[in-house]
TrEMBL record:
Name of the protein this chain belongs to: AAA+ ATPase domain-containing protein
PANTHER family given in the database record: ATPASE WRNIP1 (PTHR13779:SF7), WERNER HELICASE-INTERACTING PROTEIN 1 FAMILY MEMBER (PTHR13779)
Recorded GO MF terms: ATP binding; ATP hydrolysis activity; enzyme activator activity; single-stranded DNA helicase activity
Cited Gene3D superfamilies: P-loop containing nucleotide triphosphate hydrolases (3.40.50.300)
Domain AAA+ ATPase span(s) in chain numbering: 64-158
Species of origin: marine metagenome
GO BP: DNA synthesis involved in DNA repair; DNA-templated DNA replication
Length: 161
């Protein structure tokens, strides 16, 4: 304890109680990413769907999520929920933007998903951001593969479906 301490204490320094490295506090990872929920128990909201025993939670717990559309304002957790579903079901997560990617990418993703399914039995969750921007050609390329279970399509939109 220093002579300059106004309130001398024999308690260990705060850093000893809460050991954090410099990288924990000042890493390149944005705060929002470090605070993002990592599982369904950390995810807040939509309890009528994701609480234990509720419909979506049951599908996820059984490892059989269906295709779905997630609708909400930016930052509401649509992408995070899709990542959690993929992690929980041990599926491969493939991100896709309806705005910037075309039919060629759709076909490539589908081929990879078919190969993965036949060689490893792992399913593929195809997360399509801005799904409301899908054009007819993209829809036609996806539809048969969503219907036959090659991919589970999780679409995210800010537009009211």
């Amino acid at each position: 304890v220093s002579d300059l301490d106004l309130f001398p204490s024999n308690d260990p320094p705060v850093a000893a109680k809460f050991p954090l490295s410099r990288t924990d506090l000042e890493g390149d990872t944005p705060l929002a990413a470090r605070m993002r929920p990592r599982n369904l128990d950390e995810f807040h909201g939509q309890d009528h769907l994701i609480a234990p025993g509720k419909p979506l939670r049951s599908m996820i717990d059984q490892g059989k999520p269906g295709s779905m559309i997630l609708w909400g304002p930016p930052g509401s957790g649509k992408t995070t929920l899709a990542h959690i579903i993929a992690e929980r079901t041990k599926a491969v997560f493939i991100g896709f933007s309806a705005v910037t990617e075309g039919v060629a990418r759709v076909r490539k993703v589908i081929t990879e998903a078919e190969n993965r399914r036949s060689s490893t039995s792992r399913s593929t969750i195809l997360f399509c951001d801005e799904i409301h921007r899908f054009n007819r050609a993209q829809q036609d390329a996806f539809l048969p593969h969503v219907e036959n279970g090659t991919v589970v399509l999780i679409g995210a939109t800010t537009e009211n479906p």
